[in-house]
Each structure stands twice: as structure tokens, then as C-alpha cells.
Amino acid sequence: MVSAEFWDERYDRADYVYGTEPNAFLVRQRWRLERGMRVLAVADGEGRNGVWLAQQGMKVMSVDTSPIGLRKALKLALARGVALQTTCADLRTWDWPQGTFDAVAAVFIHFDSADRAAMHRAMLNAVRPGGLVLLEAFRPEQLGRGSGGPPVRDMLIDAATLRADFAEAEILEMEEVETDLDEGPFHAGPAATVRMIARRPI
Prior knowledge:
The chain is an alpha/beta fold. It is built from six helices and seven strands.
């Protein structure tokens, strides 16, 4: 996982480097989410996804390692007229909530292989029984493309790895796709991603 200093430097500019509009995959999953749900937006950066979820009437905690990113998230929430709870934490050492949320949104968050399975397990454990994890990440085929993602094979992920990490969950949806990203200057162009909806067993 990349350091907080890296993300502070990336976010320390006037514009929003991944834009202010939500991830397209997350938007398409809106029908799975209800007003009033408690949602954890993991590695939410400048807040585009957390703020959008709050605009849909959900109670959102946005967690990220970058205080600069979270300040911009709160600024965006204020501009959109919604409330957003923020927590600044390194996810690898954070005391993750247990069975607290109705859903976790994990959009383009990548871990080293040494941490990945534990972090995915923490996401699943953060939701109540029956709760959802909505995830999109870059696949190994993304290497060498200029449309985003870590330039390290070890941090990229495929469907088989996700299925293994979420073996305790019910997989409602899993697909590897070629898509076109339009999410600010750092996520723009053709991209290879994997998308998953997992449900914690009741």
C-alpha cells in the first residue's frame, strides 16, 4: 500500500485528481443500496464516492490515509450539501469496525500481497451479516497502461484471487472487464479491471 505522504502530495492541488463524480460501477450498483444505510467508503481519497453515497441518503464514513484528501472530501461534501464522517487511518493498522456497516465501497484500492487477504477479510467483517462489499480494482493486464493503477504487478488483482480472499462470502457478481475510465486526470482511458459484489453470510 502506498504511503500517506505519496497521497498527500498527489492530492495537494486545487483540482480533484480523480474528479468529483462517483465511480461508474458504484453508480450502477445503486439499486442494491437503500436510503439510511450505513456505508464505509474505503480509501475514499478526495471523497467523490463517499459524497455521492451521502447524496443518495446514506450515512457514510469515509476512511483514508491522507489528511489532505479527507479535507478535500469534506469540502466537496459541504459544496454538495451533505454530511460526511471522515477517519484518517492506515488501513493496515486501523482498528476496523466489526459488523457495523450495511455496505463497504472499495474502489481502486490496492494492497501488497502480504496485506491484501487480511484487508479484504477486514472489509467483509466490517459489514453486518447480509451486508455487501462492492469492489472494483485494476487487473494485472493494466500494467503499462496510462489510465491509472499501481505500476507493480504484486498490487494488481484478478477474479480468482478475489474469490479466494472472499471465500467466506457469497459472490453475487464477479467480472473481469475492459472499460474506459473518465475519472479525472489520473484515471482516464482504456483500463483492465475486476468488479465484485460479495455478501457476508447471514
